[in-house]
Amino acid sequence: MAHNHDSLCLLFFRLLLPTSNLDTVKIGFHFDIVKIEVFNQPMSTLKTQYHHGDLTKSLLDSAAIIIKEQGVESLSMRKLADTVGVSRTAPYHHFKDKNALLCALAEQGFHEQERILNSLKSEKQQATETFKKYVHAYLEYALQYSETYDLMYGRTLWKAGNPSDSLKTASKQTFKAWIDWVEELQEKNILPNNNTPLRIGQTTWASLHGLARLFIDGIYLDKEDLSDMVEQMIKNLCSTST
């Protein structure tokens, strides 16, 4: 099927979402099929890990830790430079300003989401099982990287900020990969085929995103509920009983 992905893609990502911290929820999913790297290093160790030539990565890693521990508002280019242990002008050689830095973090998140999808699709298993694992992996990523997830899908960049061209490209690419897979799942009668892949993809993703936000924002706090809710949501989304 031919689809006009770009026409509705940006609208799909321009969601007005509140930012929040996930201090009370721990993730209940553990998978061997997807490796999600977590920045668990304490702030005090970051300076010793910087080596000449990888400053861009060090800045992004450090920025991710700062917003995870202290929130986006507390991040500044000066604090970032002090944390990494470089001059206060050094970060500006890699990122024009804080907005550009946050865009790079969000862009990195979209690339990771696409990597997770491609990793699961490459496994030799039934498509139904792949879809189930993706739903779990999507929610695991959203909860584990809630601050980055807020940047990817929240108003900080898409409404209040200025999303970079490369961020827009990354979001479109990730969305297109998702819609292409939705079409495959429709052809295999796993997802409903009573509408276009675009519409089914949007509404299916909205279910995943909505559940993620309910836990990120603290509406639901009992992690034991999450697994049961995910399983029921998968049954609701699929065309046939899974």
Tally of helical segments = 11
Structure class: mainly alpha
Mean of residue pLDDT values: 81
Largest sheet: none
Distance between the termini: 26 Å
Uncertain stretches: 1-50
Name the beta content range.
Answer: under 5%
Number of strands: 0
Secondary structure blueprint with pairings:
Elements: H1 5-13, H2 46-49, H3 55-70, H4 77-84, H5 98-121, H6 127-144, H7 146-153, H8 155-158, H9 165-187, H10 197-216, H11 223-237
Helix pairs in contact: 1-9, 3-4, 5-6, 5-7, 5-9, 6-10, 9-10, 10-11
Explain this structure.
The protein has helices at 5-13, 46-49, 55-70, 77-84, 98-121, 127-144, 146-153, 155-158, 165-187, 197-216, 223-237. It contains 11 helices and no strands. Helix 3 crosses helix 4. The radius of gyration is 19 Å and the shape is elongated.
Keywords:
mainly alpha; 242 residues
Provide a short characterization of the protein structure:
Helices cover 62% and strands 0% of the residues. It is built from eleven helices and no strands.
